[in-house]
Write a structure and sequence with these properties.
The chain has a single domain, classed as OB fold (Dihydrolipoamide Acetyltransferase, E2P). The strands form 3 sheets. Strands 6-7-8-10-9 form a 5-stranded mixed barrel. The protein has a two-stranded antiparallel ribbon with strand order 1-2. The chain has a two-stranded antiparallel sheet with strand order 4-5. A hairpin with a 2-residue loop joins strand 1 and strand 2. The chain is an alpha+beta fold.
Length: 143
């Protein structure tokens, strides 16, 4: 399974937790496919490059181009947020957001280049509770 190109189209994003990216294997294994290899539970692995993550905004850095988010497993950085239409209003500390983006780095902490950002703050408690289960369920299907 690859999240690169499939029939000329980018595969859908894979839901991941920051801790999974932090522990990911390096980019481009022997088969030279793009992405990083994450552990998807029960000894299975997945190769990911386009990811869907959720977390709470901790701080906005570097003139509003980068934000730090935190999920249940740690922190991660999201770059290029200034290029996302309608992304700015939800980028305030304490807001709970969804980010879809391309992995730029996994160490020392995950860095994602944003493609889409959405504010989930209205139902943050529900989204937070369900997120880890959603990640596990999708990865079981894909792995």
């Amino acid at each position: 399974w690859s999240t690169g190109q499939v029939d000329g189209k980018r595969s859908p994003p894979v839901k991941v937790l920051s801790g999974q990216l932090r522990a990911a294997g390096t980019r481009g294994a022997a088969d030279s496919a793009e992405g990083y290899v994450i552990r998807a539970g029960r000894g299975r692995t997945l190769r990911v490059s386009l990811v869907w993550m959720q977390g709470t905004v901790l701080e906005v850095q570097l003139g509003g181009t980068t934000v730090m988010l935190m999920d249940e497993t740690g922190t991660f950085a999201v770059q290029g947020v200034n290029n996302i239409p309608k992304g700015k209003p939800c980028l305030l500390p304490g807001k709970y957001v969804m980010v879809m983006g391309v992995i730029q780095a996994v160490s020392p902490e995950p860095v994602i280049r944003a493609v889409k950002i959405a504010d989930l703050s209205d139902f943050a408690a529900l989204h937070r509770q369900m997120w880890k289960l959603e990640v596990e369920e999708l990865q079981q299907v894909l792995a």
